[in-house]
Amino acid sequence: MSWRALRKPATVTSLSIILCIVLYWQSTNIHRQTTSCACGSCPKQNEDEGSWFSKRFNASFHPLMSSNSSVLSEKASKWWKRLQPRKGQPNYGEVVEKLFQIIPDKEYYRGTSPDRCRVCSVVGNSGNLKKSHYGRLIDASDFVIRINKGPTKGFEQDVGSKTTHRIIYPESAVDVDNSTHLVLVAFKPLDLEWLLNVFTTHRVRHTYTHVKSTIKANTSMVMVFNPSFMQYVHEAWLKKQGPQPSTGFLAVVFALHICDQVRVFGFGADKDGTWDHYFERIRPSFKTGQHKGTLEYDMIRELDKRHQIEMYRGW
Ligand SMILES: *[C@@H]1O[C@H](CO)[C@@H](O)[C@H](O)[C@H]1NC(C)=O
Ligand SMILES: *[C@@H]1O[C@H](CO)[C@@H](O)[C@H](O)[C@H]1NC(C)=O
Ligand SMILES: *[C@@H]1O[C@H](CO)[C@@H](O)[C@H](O)[C@H]1NC(C)=O
Ligand SMILES: *[C@@H]1O[C@H](CO)[C@@H](O)[C@H](O)[C@H]1NC(C)=O
After folding, report:
1. Cα 57 to ligand 1 centre (Å)
2. Mean pLDDT of the chain, nearest integer
3. For the whole model, what pTM was predicted?
4. Quick one: which of 220, 234, 224, 166 has its CA closest to 193?
């Protein structure tokens, strides 16, 4: 037998072995990436440690408060106290305790599941939704998260009709129907007390603006953002710029935490550069206010660029 004849089968065998190892490694690797959720792609789970996203996103912060998470870290407590006037605040611990006798004390939306594909739409209030015809796309999501008073009635074709979560603060509160989670952003203990009182005594203390003394909402579906989560969004996502994150930006990070895929509608200016609401005209100077800072908008654009969210601008 010649040297060549012996050599050839040996090469083929070792090549096959290498091929098998590579294929096996690939299949386990693909398996590992896709078991994190049941959607076609699970953007959060494909992130490497140290990536732009991983440096900001921290799954250990849970967006919603339960009695378990009602004790604030020193850092969160300090940050939260800075937002509020010193005088006239009720005792945080007492209000929280009373509140969880009225609303469910549940740990919502913990963890992920390989069988779950939860698609969420966050719908902002930008005028770029006008004539967008996004309604059907929005309603096809599992969760539809709306912000402040952004209405659906009369705007269904562009913004849809479904609302699973509506994120509000006392001054922006509106009634919600019996299938919507009212989600409170509390900037101070007084806001938590307000929530308690609208469902109990209907006697609310006024701060600097008028707030409603009753709200139509199913109390067994009311949720409250955890101040620790708000502090994390301010620090990790906004590098502490501005006094606090806006309701809209909190909604986007909330969705990143609890959903497998996130679509974002109604943020930013329209194609002519106008900042407006789809349901009303706003003062031109509004965009320079603390809630329309371009940093938040740039962050949303960056998330879109990095395929963590899908942004729909209407143009
Ligand atoms: C996430 O936050 C927790 C609690 O603050 C912290 O201990 C942890 O180091 C953070 N993880 C990352 C990856 O930053
Ligand atoms: C609080 O945490 C404990 C231990 O993790 C858990 O058993 C309990 O169900 C939690 N309480 C609520 C209201 O979720
Ligand atoms: C309130 O929500 C609970 C839980 O989702 C539901 O079982 C109940 O029917 C709702 N009540 C009303 C009046 O819609
Ligand atoms: C929820 O509201 C709808 C329409 O507003 C009503 O038809 C339905 O009976 C309500 N459900 C409950 C459980 O009250």
Report:
1. 9
2. 86
3. 0.87
4. 224
- pLDDT at 241 exceeding the cut of 80: yes
Q: Does ligand 2 have an atom closer than 6 angstroms to the CB of 66?
A: yes
Residue with tokens 């402040």: 148
Collapsing DSSP states into helix, strand and coil, what is residue 5? helix
Q: Which residues pair with 145 in a beta bridge?
A: 122, 165
Residue 54 CA, closest ligand 1 atom number: 13
Q: How many separate domains does the chain show?
A: 1
Enter the tokens of residue 53: 């996203």
Neighbours of 140 (CB within 10 A): 13
Between 118 and 47, the higher pLDDT residue: 118
Asked if 298 contacts 239 with a C-beta cutoff of 8 angstroms, the reply is no
- Say how many Å lie between the CA of residue 191 and the centre of ligand 3: 24
Q: What is the pLDDT of residues 15-35, one digit of tens each?
A: 565 554 555 555 444 444 444
Tell me the CATH number at 70. Answer: 3.90.1480.20
Ligand sitting nearest the alpha carbon of 68: 2
Does 187 reside within a domain? Answer: yes
